[in-house]
Write a structure and sequence with these properties.
heterodimer, A: alpha/beta, 5 strands, B: about 200 residues, alpha+beta, 7-stranded antiparallel beta sheet, 6 helices
Chain lengths: ~120, ~200
């Protein structure tokens, strides 16, 4: 299965990729540092599961989310954000995200995500 | 004076830890104000106090509320919340406050919640503990900001600068975390150990 990790922070990407690999050792993982890169990778690779940060330069998560679903409406998007305001969670779910999870994603949270989706 | 610099990796780790901490703090304040804030990417810089003060010359308003709260521990320093007069007036309007004393009280409470939530979460992320002093508030004009005691205590500082932005209520503030030399060295070691665990 193809996964895409979208975050401008190297730390956040490393942490998430490490948790994901521990649960899904054969995962094919692509990485993007902003929404624009994510859209470009999505067009080429049609990744099935996407972990998407919200606060990013160039193109933020709110703008990226519908663009990714336009490319593949069946893609599962998990928003991984430090923004834990209720309205932020409601907004991303309304935009089509499957889940909103608070950063950072540790092993337990990754297990929970993979079980839910 | 020893000159410290943060590497790109150290900045990235600190920025991400700050992002998580700020997200938590903002959610608490958003609940308190029953409002929705947009988050910005924290800007991390190591500056001399003189360089930091020179960045204030770009500010447009003439009068500001400047609230600070000191914290101590392995990681020690001061968090500062900076809000212009117009935003303070909009805060008063949003909270239906009708006198200056109540507004001062509201800004102090906002600062207390914001900076203590922020610093507590940041410390937790770095596996350490801090204790807090009471916040204090002063009204300063842009011309006199360099005389604020906070800026007299530090020579070189890590400035973690982010915006608090409640667009609907037109309340905009800036938050700084200022750290002293000994904390900068502690912080560099901690940031590298966090990164090494992942590589």
């Amino acid at each position: 299965m193809k996964y895409l990790v979208v975050d401008d922070s190297k730390l956040a990407r490393l942490s998430l990729v490490k948790s994901l690999k521990s649960q899904v050792p054969d995962a094919e993982i692509f990485q993007a540092t902003n929404g624009q890169e994510a859209v470009e990778i999505m067009l080429q690779e049609k990744t099935e599961i996407i972990f998407l940060d919200l606060t990013m330069p160039i193109m933020d998560g709110y703008e990226t989310l519908p663009k990714l679903l336009e490319i593949d409406s069946k893609a599962k998007i998990i928003v991984v954000s430090a923004d834990v305001q209720t309205k932020a969670k409601e907004k991303v779910i309304a935009l089509g995200a499957q889940l909103h999870m608070q950063k950072p994603i540790n092993l337990d949270k990754m297990k929970e995500i993979l079980e839910i989706i | 004076m020893r000159q410290y610099e943060l590497t790109e990796d150290e900045k990235d780790v600190l920025q991400e830890l700050m992002n998580v901490a700020y997200g938590n703090a903002t959610a608490v304040v958003a609940d308190m104000l029953d409002a929705f804030a947009s988050l910005s990417i924290p800007n991390i810089r190591v500056l001399t106090t003189h360089e930091l003060l020179s960045t204030f010359t770009q500010l447009k308003a003439q009068s500001y509320f400047f609230a600070t709260q000191a914290f101590s521990g392995e990681f020690s320093g001061e968090s500062a919340f900076f809000i212009d007069q117009e935003s303070a007036n909009n805060l008063a309007k949003h909270l239906e406050l009708d006198n200056a004393e109540d507004l001062d009280d509201a800004i102090l409470e906002l600062t207390n919640v914001l900076t203590s939530s922020l610093t507590t979460k940041l410390s937790q992320e770095m596996d350490t503990e801090v204790s807090f002093s009471l916040p204090s508030l002063s009204r300063v004009s842009l011309n006199n900001i360099q005389k604020t005691p906070t800026f007299q205590h530090y020579s070189q500082v890590i400035v973690i600068d982010t915006d608090l932005n409640f667009q609907d209520q037109k309340i905009h503030g800036k938050i700084f975390i200022l750290t002293k030399d000994e904390s900068i060295q502690w912080l560099k070691t901690k940031l590298n150990s966090i990164l090494e665990l992942l590589i």
